[in-house]
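pinging the channel bc i need a second pair of eyes. not urgent but kinda urgent?? the chain im working w is below, pasted from the shared doc
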Amino acid sequence: MGLNKYGPAVSGLGPSSASGSGDGSGVEAKAAEKSAFDLKLEKYDAAAKIKIIKEVRTFTDLGLKEAKELVEKVPVVLKKGLTKEEADPILAKLKELGATVVLE
């Protein structure tokens, strides 16, 4: 009959329950940020581009073409959801090759 196209009939509970759960998810997001980091490539030396592409391929499941396109989209997140222990060796290796990398 077309009644479902406007969503549920209970409209009073939507905004109040959404704001309450929104506050809770903000706290959960802060807790998650402390344990999971994103590895972001800010910039790199043009001379070290090939070495950086090879290194990106070692810790991602990307092929040569995909890794090259990813590196050329600077600034770009290379890998998401890493722990501090997983990210530190990758971060050190990329910095050693001449890239500017940050953990977010």
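so Helices lie at 13-35, 49-59, 64-72, 84-97. and The longest strand covers residues 37-44. — does that match what u expected or am i reading it wrong
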